[in-house]
């Protein structure tokens, strides 16, 4: 093979490298061939000693990719060096296939544990904020009921046409407005004709409003001192001092609040829309709710919702002992540390792989460089 044909094939085989690098390599080999001619060697002998230009180009590209990786150590540059070594046949198929499978598993590990970390973080933020920062809403009863809820119940009974009249709905709204909770105190704003009986730890207090005048009677030592009176005839008493509270409106509507010893009182509201609403603590910090109206009833007890109209009975149970929000919060609490630990393991494996692969590449490139030097020396 002639010098020009060899150089032309070598330039074509090096086409993937930058033009400046190709020109430097070609100029170097022209100089080498010229020096060999000056030493008395024939053109055919020199070209034959250099071997096939395509094979020589693969070795030179492996060297160039290695130098590029040393200048800028990125994963992409390292993979180009590995690809160049594989192209030389120095990376056996027995080693290449397991290595590719290992890289695939490592990549999937990053994706899986990264998604697990993000999902756990989002779940904790979405559901954990309620458990960490959730506080009772001011102006409503601690069990979640208040004037708005009870008024809505009365309006619903009117719309259904089951014995509720405009006057009844209005009075239901009034009795709901007579009692509210402000922090750790009950506040009573009695309407005309309303009365309240409060059983306290020191005695019984009876208060009524008639003709715009408020009257208060108390039995027991110190019972009266527990009740405070505002300028607008509002009454206030600490929730901890109340054992039971019975509130009645002028037309006989009634609301009962009983302190059962827990942090949440029991509540019984008969007469709303011709029916009865009862809420009692379940002993585990939650509430049991029962709504009845004739043969129709709805109850929520121990995570089970039961609906009965006298002819049909439907019962739906939640997972025992857990609300859906609690389950989601628990999963989020488990996913976040698992995801973080998995990512840390993946990072550690990547560092180990990087170092081992770097040492292997350096040894193989040193072998290629030594081979090229021997060929040029011969």
Structure report:
The protein is an alpha+beta fold. It has 4 domains: 1-71; 76-134 and 324-377; 173-251, no CATH class; 260-319. Helices cover 51% and strands 22% of the residues. The protein is built from 9 helices and 15 strands. The two termini are 18 Å apart. The chain crosses the membrane at residues 81-104, 110-133, 337-354.
Question: What's the gist of this structure?
Answer:
By secondary structure, the protein is an alpha+beta fold. Helix content is 51%, strand content 22%.
Topology of this structure?
Layout: H1 3-13, H2 19-38, H3 43-50, H4 53-71, H5 75-87, H6 93-133, H7 147-160, H8 166-178, E1 179-182, E2 185-188, E3 195-200, E4 203-210, E5 213-219, E6 228-229, E7 235-238, E8 242-248, E9 254-258, E10 266-272, E11 275-281, E12 287-293, E13 296-301, E14 304-308, E15 313-317, H9 324-377
Antiparallel strand pairs: 1-2, 2-7, 3-4, 3-8, 4-5, 6-7, 8-9, 9-10, 10-11, 11-12, 12-13, 13-14, 14-15
Helix pairs in contact: 1-2, 1-4, 4-5, 4-9, 5-9, 6-9, 7-8
Keywords: Membrane, Transmembrane, Transmembrane helix
Transmembrane segments: 81-104, 110-133, 337-354
Pfam family, one: HAAS
Instruction: Tell me the Rg in angstroms.
Output: 43 Å
The strands making up the biggest β-sheet line up spatially as 5-4-3-8-9-10-11-12-13-14-15
What's the main sheet like?
11 strands, antiparallel
- Unreliable parts: 135-173
User: How widely separated are the two ends?
Assistant: 18 Å
Order of H and E elements: HHHHHHHHEEEEEEEEEEEEEEEH
Question: What portion of residues is helical?
Answer: 40-55%
Helical element count?
A: 9
Mean pLDDT: 73
What is the percentage of strand-forming residues? 15-25%
Query: What overall form do the CA principal axes indicate?
Result: rod-shaped
Given helix and strand content, the structural type is alpha+beta
- Quaternary status of these chains? single chain
Tally of distinct domains: 4
Q: How many beta-strand elements?
A: 15
Pfam families: HAAS
Protein name: DUF1700 domain-containing protein
Keywords: Membrane, Transmembrane, Transmembrane helix
Transmembrane segments: 81-104, 110-133, 337-354
């Amino acid at each position: 093979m002639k010098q020009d044909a060899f150089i032309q094939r070598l330039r074509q085989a090096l086409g993937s490298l930058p033009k400046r690098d190709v020109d430097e390599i070609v100029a170097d080999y022209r100089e080498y061939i010229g020096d060999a001619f000056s030493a008395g060697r024939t053109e055919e002998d020199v070209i034959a000693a250099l071997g096939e230009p395509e094979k020589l180009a693969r070795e030179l590209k492996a060297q160039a990719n290695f130098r590029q990786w040393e200048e800028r150590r990125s994963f992409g540059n390292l993979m180009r060096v590995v690809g160049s070594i594989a192209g030389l046949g120095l990376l056996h198929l027995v080693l290449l296939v397991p290595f590719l499978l290992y890289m695939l598993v490592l990549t999937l590990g990053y994706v899986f544990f990264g998604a697990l970390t993000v999902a756990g973080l989002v779940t904790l933020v979405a559901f954990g904020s309620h458990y960490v920062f959730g506080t009772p809403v001011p102006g409503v009863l601690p069990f979640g009921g208040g004037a708005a809820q009870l008024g809505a119940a009365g309006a619903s009974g009117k719309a259904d046409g089951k014995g509720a009249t405009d006057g009844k709905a209005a009075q239901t709204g009034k009795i709901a407005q007579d009692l509210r909770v402000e922090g750790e105190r009950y506040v009573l704003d009695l309407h005309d004709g309303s009365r309240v009986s409060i059983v306290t730890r020191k005695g019984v207090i009876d208060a009524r409003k008639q003709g715009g005048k408020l009257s208060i009677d108390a039995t027991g030592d110190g019972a009266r001192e527990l009740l405070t009176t505002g300028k607008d005839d509002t009454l206030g008493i600490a929730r901890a001092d109340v054992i039971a509270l019975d509130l009645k409106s002028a037309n006989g509507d009634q609301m009962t609040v009983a302190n059962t010893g827990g942090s949440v009182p029991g509540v019984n509201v008969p007469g709303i829309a011709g029916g009865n609403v009862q809420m009692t603590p379940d002993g585990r910090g939650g509430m049991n709710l029962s709504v009845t109206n004739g043969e129709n009833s709805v109850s929520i007890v121990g995570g089970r919702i039961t609906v009965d109209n006298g002819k049909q009975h439907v019962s739906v149970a939640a997972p025992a002992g857990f609300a859906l929000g609690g389950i989601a919060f628990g999963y989020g609490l488990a996913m976040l540390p698992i995801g973080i630990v998995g990512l840390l393991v993946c990072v550690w494996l990547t560092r180990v792989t990087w170092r081992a692969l770097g040492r292997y590449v350096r040894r193989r490139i040193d072998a290629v460089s030594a081979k090229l030097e021997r060929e040029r020396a011969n």
